[in-house]
Amino acid sequence: MKRALFAVALTACGANSAGRAEPPVVVIATPSAPAREPAVASPPRPIELPIGVVPPDAARLPSGLAFKVTKAGSGKAHPSEYDDVTVRYSGFTSDGEEFDTTERTTTREPVTLGVSNVIPGWTEALQLMVQGEERRVWVPAELAYGTKSRSGAPSGDLVFDIELCDIVVKPKPPPTPTDVAAAPRSAKKTKSGLAYRVLTKGTGKKHPTATSQVTVHYTGWTPAGTMFDSSIVRGEPAKFPLYGVIKGWTEGLQLMVDGEKTRFWIPAALAYGDAPARKGAPAGMLVFDIELLSFETNP
């Protein structure tokens, strides 16, 4: 386990003899005694600081995050917020109690996780690292799980020893459309209030039905331009039955054909509502770019 060390120089202390001068000692017919080595101060002795104490030589960021590289990496590239990383790590509370580690397994197998799917302190720290690097990171409570414990998560300031084993580069998200705030006049509109505009014409002739199984690539934004979901970022298309999604998708995809890419402006009533009951679901009107890759219609 890498530890943050602080060297303290020790000084040698000696007592001087006091009193009268001694006469010289003469040795006859014997070799001269070798001269004694001069007294040397003891070498510096490393003193280990408590885990929760940020050492003076640690780097500090404006966010409050502090870190110290304990082993330089061999890589050159840094992961982005969209990438996955493979890491080994140990986590400690500020008083040094270990609450989680990959070291408990006999093989010390690393774990793979999304850079943006962890606590903010990790998201920030991982993007500063390179492959093969190890560092100790001091994460303030506001960048971890907060000051009050919830669902078994540790509270307060935390400390992590992280080894970045590998970076799995993921596709970057598509740019935010310029018309997410509202459907343009050129968009078509259905009786339900669904608005849409074909971005790329498809090659197919048939349309899915409400019971079809569809395979799609998609990205979703709020009217403010915040991306909240994307199969493109995950690196694989999504497959699901049309009857198992929001009403705007069920209606909209039945207007499409294979190979077509369409932008939909879905009102809140056809999405998750203005106050979603589903935890984490975006509220209000939503915008989706959907590419229909294929579909299967049940008999």
Strand runs, count: 16
CATH architecture identity of the largest domain? Roll
Mean pLDDT: 85
Low-confidence stretches: 1-35
Please state roughly what percent of the residues sit in beta strands, choosing from under 5%, 5-15%, 15-25%, 25-35%, 35-45% or over 45%.
Answer: 25-35%
Largest beta-sheet details: 7 strands, antiparallel
Quick take:
With 299 residues, the chain is mainly beta. The chain has helices at residues 120-126, 231-234, 247-253, and strands spanning 5-8, 45-48, 59-60, 66-71, 84-93, 98-101, 111-114, 134-139, 158-168, 188-189, 195-200, 213-221, 227-230, 238-241, 261-266, 286-296.
Structural summary, described in words:
- The protein is mainly β and 299 residues long.
- It has 2 domains: 59-168, Roll (Chitinase A, domain 3), CATH 3.10.50; 188-296, Roll (Chitinase A, domain 3).
- The chain is 6% helix and 31% strand.
- The protein has helices at 120-126, 231-234, 247-253; strands at 5-8, 45-48, 59-60, 66-71, 84-93, 98-101, 111-114, 134-139, 158-168, 188-189, 195-200, 213-221, 227-230, 238-241, 261-266, 286-296.
- Residues 1-35 have low confidence and may be disordered.
Lay out the secondary structure.
Elements: E1 5-8, E2 45-48, E3 59-60, E4 66-71, E5 84-93, E6 98-101, E7 111-114, H1 120-126, E8 134-139, E9 158-168, E10 188-189, E11 195-200, E12 213-221, E13 227-230, H2 231-234, E14 238-241, H3 247-253, E15 261-266, E16 286-296
Notable traits:
16 strands, Chitinase A, domain 3, 7-stranded antiparallel sheet, 2 domains, mainly beta
